Structure formats: structure tokens, C-alpha cells
Amino acid sequence: MEFVSSVEPSGCVFDAVDLKKEFDDGRVRALRGVSFKIAAGEFVSIIGTSGSGKSTLLKMLGAIDKATSGSLLYKGAPIAELPDPAEYRAREIGFIFQAFHLLPNFTAIENVQFPMFETDRPARERRDRAAELLDSVGLHDRRDHFPDTLSGGERQRVAIARSIANQPEVLLADEPTGNLDSKNAESIMDLINTIQAERKMTVVLVTHDMTVASYAPRALRMEDGMITSDGKFALDE
Amino acid sequence: MTFLTIVIRGLVRRPVRTILTMLGIAIGIASVVMLVGVAWGFEKGWSDGFKAHETDIVVGNMSGGVMPKSFNESVEQRIATLPHVADTTSLIAELMGVENLSMIMVSGREWGGFAWNSLKILDGRLPHDDSEYAVVLGHLAAGSLDKKVGDPLQIEATEFTVVGIVDGGAVVENGTIFVALSRLQEATANEGLINFINVQLKPGTSDSEAGELMAQIEKEFPEGKAMPANEVLGSSQGIQAVRAMSWSTSLLAVTIGVLGVMNTMLMSVFERTREIGVLLALGWRRGRIMRMILLESAFLGLLGGVTGVLLGVGGLQLLQFVPGIEGLLDPHISASLIGSSIGIALVVGVFSGIYPAWRSSRLSPDLALQG
User: Fold this and answer.
1) d(CA B261, CA B255)
2) Is the complex ipTM higher than 0.85?
3) CB A118 to CB B278 under 8 A?
4) Which residues contact residue A226 at a Cβ distance below 8 angstroms, ignoring those fewer than 6 apart?
5) Which of A23, A31, B113, B200 is the most buried (most CB within 10 A)?
6) pTM of the model as a whole
């Protein structure tokens, strides 16, 4: 599978049309016809309360879940029909999780190397790349520390370094500051902002926190499985 | 960090569990090494024994137990005249209870036959002739029976005198009581009966000629079987049963090992469902996850195999110092036994890992996004 051009001719990285997702034979409707486009290099937040469908949508963008109906394209190709979703997640997508999800028995520099195992990089190159990424997120001195000796903010920085290890075009962040205090949350959002700007990455950030959402120039607000607003985010909304 | 680092780190995250599981396999493999090593050693001891008295072909009826069935001694005369035969000698070899020992090898050998030639006298002498009620003892048998030259020894209802202590050149021979054939036939009421004929071939006899001779012997003596000396014990139904028992006991131990490893690997997968979900979300293919679990399991097997071989070899060494069997065991630890034991452990590891690996591959990257 190859996504040859960086963007589809229309300029869209993601193009969703009437996405629906039902569970329990239709008794639960997580998405009720969601349509949107996300352009290359865009920073978009998806905001909504618990159960609004934002996490379901994020899973679909990451080829982890499939819609019941509707279409979701990545650079013009239907994500649901990808022959190798793992390849897509390894090469095109970087994930940042709320609970960091670092592997506890591996040091920071080892954790950053995990996504690179699905590439052809030799071991030394993987290590050098991981070291460079940790330097770039300000963790030069913490490379050889295990996760349980790092603070929450440091762990999320390691996770961010890990998410961009394979230079993906898209960063999907699921409540990236949900387990952090406000000071660390601000620092992490600044880092995501910097990475997005420097690398011109497409970032889709799911959050229920308005302050966090305000970092993205565009916000999709979701309620009951539908997008209720799509536009520039204003903190006083 | 290499893929192997990840595999090894997966094992050391729960060191006590890993060591206990590895010991479970190791005990199974140690039992394989000990049981099979002793059985092979016993067979090799017999083969060495025949080699010691320069026997090329052995004729016997091996359809009975460990020892062959007895047959008429006149068969020897018919075999002695066949082509390529240089010499023949008749024997009775029986496992019997003698005095304080519930089982010891007693060998009645045709007086003047070449089977006596290999016995090196350590003390005393050989019998003067076959009319003398005299026995010589292999030095291990002398130790087990606590006899010295001049002591009386009772076989069945007949009293013999120990006239010599010998080195027979093989463990089986050294653990044997030697007596003239006619005296043993008399003592055991088996007049005219023997259960082995040892054949020496003429120098220069080829393998194909030896094969033809064995076929001819079986024509002359249809109820018997002629076989090269080193294959005698292997053809015994009794020994085949002992082999089957040692392998099936080993199989049981190995099966317990399989269950232990499978349980450990399943627990390991269950404990790591979230981590596996994260790896899948990071783009790891299901095949790589399966390889990781299978390799961890194979490593457990390999470590257990190596430890088991060390335990087995150590156990056999210790067994040889146990009073009562001291010196009687000559276990045969060959490279093939070590190799096959470690191979079995490796197969145990891989086999035990298949189901946990399959389970791990069914997990979803969705787990990474749950909480």
C-alpha cells in the first residue's frame, strides 16, 4: 500500500461522508451521519462530552474501527478497505494516548523505537533516531529512564516522540492532557503545537477540555453522534 | 534494541514465574535424560560385553522378556558347520535372585569357549574345569554380594565357591556371576538348554556374507534369531518395553511441561493485553506479535532444555554414588541424547506458545484507546 501523493487533488487528507456507527444491532448509535473534510497540515480538535462519538470517530481515522455505513477516505482511499491497516498505522499515523501507554519494562529511548520495528531501519539507526526525537522533546537526560521514574509530563513527551518516530503525516491524539496537571497540560499542548507547525503535520485531537481544544484553529463539536458545529474555535463558546 | 531484546525483556519481567516455568520443563527434560540415558547405557553395556568377548553374531530367541527364551544346546553344532563361522560358544544368561540380591546377572558359559577369554583375573583364578562347583565374580558383582575369593555362594539350591574376581571389560560383565554352563544348567534344572549362542566370524568376512550367514542360521533354527552383537538387546521385547516405558514416562513429564509453559504464556498474554493493543495501534502487525509470543515461549523451552540436560547429567552422576546401585549404572549420555532432549524442549516451547500467540493476535488495537 502506498499513499504516493502527500494530499489528494482536492487537498483533503481525510474526507468523511455520512459516517454512521451502530452497536447492538442498531440499539446504540455512536455516529449518526457525520461528514467533514480535513486538509493536509490542518490542526483540528474534536470536542464533546463522554459518549458524543468523538473517540469512535478517532478509531475510524486510525483504522481501528469501521463505520456501519458511509465513507471515510484517507488521501482518496477508503480506510475501511485498506489491505494492510497495520501498515497504515505504522507509516501514516502517529497515536498519542491519554494514559501515555509506555511499555513499563523498556526505557524511554526503547519505547520510542517500537513503531520503527515495522520499518527497514537497522537497530543502530532506530536508536539514533529515538535519541534525536527525545532530544527534540527535551528529554535528553531521561533517555535511559524507565517510565515509572518519569513524571506524567515526561511520559507524555516520550509518547509524543514515539508517535512521530516514523515521520507520519497525521497525528491522532486522544485526550493527550487528560492525565496531566494544568502546567504539564500546557507544556504538552505547546509541544504538539510546535511539532504540528514545524513538521506541517495534520493533527486531529480529541478532547473534552475547552482550553486544550483552543490550541487548534478549527474545532468540530460533537453531540449524540453528530457534528453540531464546525469552525474556528472560540474559548467563550 | 533488537526484536530479541523485546522477547527477552518479556521473559524477565516476571523472573520468578519464568524460573519456575523453566524448572518445570527442566525437570521433564531431566527425566528424559536420566531414563533414556540409563536405558541406552544398559543396552550399550550389553553391546560392550559382547564386544569384550569378541562376539560378532548372537543367536537367541528374543521373543520373551528381557532375557531370551531357552532352546536346545544341539543347535550350536548345526551353526558351527556353516560357512564363515570361525567359532561358536553356548551360554545361559539369566537375571536371578542370588543370596541377598533380588536380581543379578548369572552367566553360564560353555567350558573352554571363547566367552571366558575376555575375563581378566584381578584376584584368584578361573575354575579348573566344568566339573568344579566354582564361580568367578565380576568385581562389581563381588562388591554387591560382599564376597571375596574363597567365600561360598549359593545359586538356587547349589553351593559354589568363589574362586576368582575378574574384570570383564564392560559394566554388564563386571556385574555378572560367571559359572561353567553345565554347572548352571544343573543348578537351575535346565540340563541341555541354553539361551544364547555367540558366533565369531572368520577374518575378512564381509557384511553381506555375515548377512547371508544370519539368514542361514535362521533357516537352521527357525524359532531363533541371529543378529549382530550390537543389536541384541534392542531386539529384545523386554528391552523394547523398557524403552517404551522410559519414553512414555518422559512424555508424561514433557506434557506437564507443555501445560506449564502454556499456562505461563497465556497469563503473560492476559497481563499484557493493553500493551499488545498499544503495539497494534503503533502499527505492529499481528504476525510480529505472534512471533514475539512464540519466541518467548521457545526461549523458555530452550532454557528449560539446557537446564534439564544439566540436571539430568548431574542426577545421573549422583545416582552412581547411591549405595546399592553404586557402580552398576553406566548411563550413556550421547550428543544425540543431549541434542534430542534440547530439541524436545524447544518443540515443547514452540508448541506451548501456539495457542497464547494466536490469542494475542486476536487482540484489538482498540485496547490502547480504552482508558
Assistant:
1) 10
2) yes
3) no
4) A31, A32, A33, A34, A53
5) A31
6) 0.75
